[in-house]
């Protein structure tokens, strides 16, 4: 059989192999210069591979069975066609056409499949889910010409294939690209002496603008999962840190605020090599510079001694609070009823009762915890505004988002891409909530004009919290204790169960229109409590003072950050991938229009056939060589340039210096077994050497050899 091109021969033999039930591989290729002269294609089970590991230790499957099946191809010089000159068809092993599709050679990922895999990986979709989506679209596993392993291999080989030497450079280039897109993008790196990254912090322009509105209360956390702690644990307890970039053992820390919908919003991210005091100092000072030197009013962290000392040094006026969830994880549930007291005196009494009842008066860890009660017990902190936060759960929820898509082999550049995805999802959640506030209204649950005030001003999420307090009024009984000169003291009993009532003291100043409750819900969360609402209802107040309608939760405020897009890095695609995406995007509208009827679909099919024929004709004409000059060259055409084919040489190169002399000596040796060298015309040989080396005379160097001294085994040049 003869073929026009070598590619046609390979395609034909692969198709034959698939139909027969085996796969092929190119065994050897001979070239003359840059042109291929002949090629040997064999069955993939040709040869015999022997493992270096002893079979007693481990046995791996092998496909090599010395299969002789092969074809030999060479080019016909006169006509330029390729001919199959030798064929062996017999296999010593069974072949099954129905199983051939499982062989690696016959599995293929099309351009469409590859682009979908890349986009899904960018979006953080797991490979198994990506593969299942292909199965569902094709109508079953048998309809696909690849398996799930091919999807995973493509991700590992092409998408996630980042060399350690290049990873840090790509990490830095990402920051530069973001800075070029928006000058308000902020980043700083702390570099070790060996130029490795020790600390990194960055925040996009939207986060910096959002800090103006939501930077009053910040949650910062590096904890992912706590160890089970027993009694006697020291104050600087050990915990598992969330290692995001397992490849480099870096710890992730995120600055998280609360927006006007009560949603978490990212205000900066960091990667740290360690959790020492100096590292936290560098990070907090860097974050303050990023936010214009404005420290938050309140700062929530886990129970970390290094973090506490760094905060005291960098933000001395900021109120620091420990995450109560981390503390309660290390204390039995029996303490729950003791720490949630409504006054400092009652907490002290309850704490002492707890120590006496369980015989823990001498426990040092609990003693130290009591000394630090002002930074974790609610009654010591709830007179400050915390936007409803008592724990670092918001930061940890961000970390859990990353943990879904970051593996132990993840790189720095993969992490920042997932951080971009997290920023985008937070931005979209806020935009959707803003749109719902603008277009819809939540009806009032009561006839109260005070509820209508909050309905008009607050976002949906915060108005629902207000409504929950209005519903809770039904469980409250209000009793006036004393009143004088417009200043009244009330006692509100709230029924929490069939037999338990909690009592709260509420003061109301009718002159100043001010109400205060012992539960401190408004002070800590910015929401009027049901106890205060009961008193206002008792006093027949129809409108609350504007001080109780916080601008923090308002839906009417025009916030600058909503007009800024979160940072997102454009994928660095190959020119062919870009062209493919553009074509797919345009064809979607055409296909949607054509699918309306059978007639339109038929028109599009005919157009596809005509276009395909035209493109194949053009491609056939362009086979061969082409030129690229400075007049028509561009970046895309240069990116598509490939290196010349690598030539595999055997032995020493031809036409080297002295080759004629070597040939004469070799020929003379074959003819005469003895006394050959004396009969060779050395004069001709020397002249041959001289003529061959004349072109190098301009580069000849004179080497001076020295005579080795006694005991000197080296030869000096």
UniProtKB/TrEMBL annotation:
PROSITE patterns according to UniProt: ZF_SWIM
Location of region: Disordered: 622-660
GO MF terms held by the record: zinc ion binding
InterPro entries recorded: FAR1_DNA_bnd_dom (IPR004330), MULE_transposase_dom (IPR018289), Znf_PMZ (IPR006564), Znf_SWIM (IPR007527)
One family name in Pfam for this protein: FAR1
Keywords attached to this entry: Metal-binding, Zinc, Zinc-finger
Ranges of biased composition (kind: Basic residues): 647-657
Start and end residues of each SWIM-type domain: 504-540
Protein name: SWIM-type domain-containing protein
Gene source species: Arachis hypogaea
Upper taxonomic lineage: Eukaryota, Viridiplantae, Streptophyta, Embryophyta, Tracheophyta
């Amino acid at each position: 059989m003869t073929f026009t091109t070598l590619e046609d021969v390979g395609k034909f033999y692969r198709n034959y192999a698939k139909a027969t039930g085996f796969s092929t591989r190119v065994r050897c290729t001979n070239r003359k210069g840059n042109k291929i002269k002949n090629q040997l294609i064999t069955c993939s089970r040709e040869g015999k591979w022997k493992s270096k590991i002893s079979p007693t230790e481990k046995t791996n499957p092998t496909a090599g069975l010395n299969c002789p099946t092969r074809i030999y191809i060479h080019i016909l010089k006169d006509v330029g066609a390729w001919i199959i000159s030798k064929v062996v068809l017999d296999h010593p092993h069974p072949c099954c056409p129905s199983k051939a599709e499982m062989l690696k050679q016959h599995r293929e990922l099309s351009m469409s499949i590859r682009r979908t895999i890349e986009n899904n990986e960018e979006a953080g979709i797991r490979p198994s889910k990506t593969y299942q989506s292909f199965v569902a679209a094709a109508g079953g596993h048998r309809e696909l010409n690849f398996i799930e392993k091919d999807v995973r291999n493509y991700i590992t080989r092409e998408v996630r294939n980042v060399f350690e030497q290049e990873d840090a450079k790509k990490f830095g280039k990402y920051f530069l690209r973001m800075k070029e897109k928006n000058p308000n993008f902020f980043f700083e790196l702390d570099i070790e002496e060996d130029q490795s990254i020790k600390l990194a912090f960055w925040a996009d322009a939207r986060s910096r603008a959002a800090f103006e509105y939501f930077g009053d209360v910040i949650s910062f956390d590096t904890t992912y999962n706590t160890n089970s702690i027993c009694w006697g644990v020291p104050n600087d307890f050990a915990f598992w840190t969330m290692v995001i970039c397992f490849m480099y053992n870096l710890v992730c820390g995120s600055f998280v605020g609360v927006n006007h919908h009560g949603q978490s919003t990212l205000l900066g991210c960091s990667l740290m090599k360690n959790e020492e005091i100096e590292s936290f100092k560098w990070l907090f000072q860097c974050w303050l510079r990023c936010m214009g030197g404005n420290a938050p009013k309140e700062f929530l962290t886990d129970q970390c001694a290094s973090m506490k000392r760094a905060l005291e040094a960098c933000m001395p006026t900021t109120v620091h609070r420990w995450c109560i969830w981390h503390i309660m994880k290390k204390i039995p549930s029996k303490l729950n009823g003791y720490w949630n007291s409504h006054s400092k005196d009652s907490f002290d009494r309850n704490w002492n009762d707890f120590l006496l009842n369980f015989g823990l008066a001498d426990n040092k860890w609990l003693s130290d915890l009591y000394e630090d009660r002002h930074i974790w017990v609610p009654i010591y902190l709830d007179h400050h505004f915390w936007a409803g936060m008592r724990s670092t759960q918001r930061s940890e929820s961000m970390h859990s988002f990353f943990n879904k898509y970051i593996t132990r082999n993840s790189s720095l550049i993969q992490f920042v891409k997932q951080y971009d995805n997290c920023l985008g999802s937070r931005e979209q959640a806020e935009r959707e909530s803003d749109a719902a506030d603008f277009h819809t209204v939540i009806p009032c649950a009561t006839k109260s004009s005070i509820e209508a005030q909050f309905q008009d001003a607050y976002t949906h999420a915060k108005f629902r919290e207000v409504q929950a307090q209005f519903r809770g009024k039904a469980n409250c009984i209000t009793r006036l204790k004393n009143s004088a000169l417009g200043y009244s003291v009330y006692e509100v009993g709230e029924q929490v169960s069939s037999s338990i009532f909690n009592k709260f003291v509420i003061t109301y100043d009718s002159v100043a229109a001010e109400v205060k409750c012992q539960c401190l819900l408004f002070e800590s969360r910015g929401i009027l409590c049901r106890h205060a609402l009961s008193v206002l209802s008792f006093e027949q107040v129809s409108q609350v003072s504007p001080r109780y309608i916080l601008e923090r939760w308002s839906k009417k405020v025009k916030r600058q950050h909503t007009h800024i897009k979160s940072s997102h890095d454009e994928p660095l695609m190959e020119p062919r991938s870009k062209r493919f995406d553009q074509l797919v995007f345009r064809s979607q509208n055409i296909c949607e229009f054509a699918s309306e009827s059978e007639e339109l679909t038929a028109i599009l099919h005919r157009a596809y056939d005509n276009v395909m024929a035209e493109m194949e004709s053009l491609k056939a004409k362009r086979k061969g060589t082409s030129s690229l000059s400075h007049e028509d060259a561009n970046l895309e055409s240069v990116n598509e340039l490939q290196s010349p084919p690598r030539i595999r040489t055997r032995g020493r190169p031809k036409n080297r210096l002295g080759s004629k002399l070597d040939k004469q000596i070799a020929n003379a040796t074959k003819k005469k077994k003895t006394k050959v060298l004396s009969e060779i015309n050395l004069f001709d040989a020397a002249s041959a050497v001289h003529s061959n080396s004349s072109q190098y005379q301009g580069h000849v160097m004179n080497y001076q050899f020295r005579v080795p001294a006694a005991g000197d085994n080296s030869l000096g040049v």
